[in-house]
TrEMBL record:
PROSITE patterns membership: PROKAR_LIPOPROTEIN
Protein known as: Secreted protein
Length: 126
């Protein structure tokens, strides 16, 4: 999927630059943010596949949402950065909307999740 590849590429490229831009303490926190944002990008790709195959296995979408929620919680508790918190809030809202759609037997629009995950990746790598 092109969107998940862009997220993964941006995350990987930014991870290579982080050591040159930050000091040790900040480096560790930024690297954690990048790793978690990368895991979220992977989970978003899983969510897209699960939504596409929801008729065959509706539980996969819920599992993908749970994985994203866990990664979002990890970032939320480890950061004091206002921009990261704002991006996480946007992702939380998008995830809640997808979860509500799935629970209401509607086809969810995951584009806000993709956008919010991209925003988080951008914030973690800037």
């Amino acid at each position: 999927m092109p969107t998940s590849r862009r997220l993964a590429t941006a995350t990987a490229g930014a991870a290579l630059l982080v050591p040159f831009l930050l000091g040790c303490g900040a480096l560790e926190k930024a690297a954690d943010c990048v790793r978690t944002a990368d895991a979220i990008a992977d989970s978003v790709a899983d969510l897209q596949r699960a939504v596409d195959g929801a008729a065959e296995d509706p539980g996969q979408a819920a599992e993908a949402l749970d994985r994203i929620d866990k990664n979002v919680d990890d970032i939320q508790k480890d950061t004091g950065d206002a921009d990261v918190s704002k991006a996480v809030d946007h992702l939380d809202t998008a995830l809640d909307n997808v979860r509500s759609a799935i629970e209401g037997d509607e086809v969810p629009d995951i584009s806000p999740v993709v956008d919010a995950a991209g925003e988080l990746t951008k914030v973690c790598t800037s």
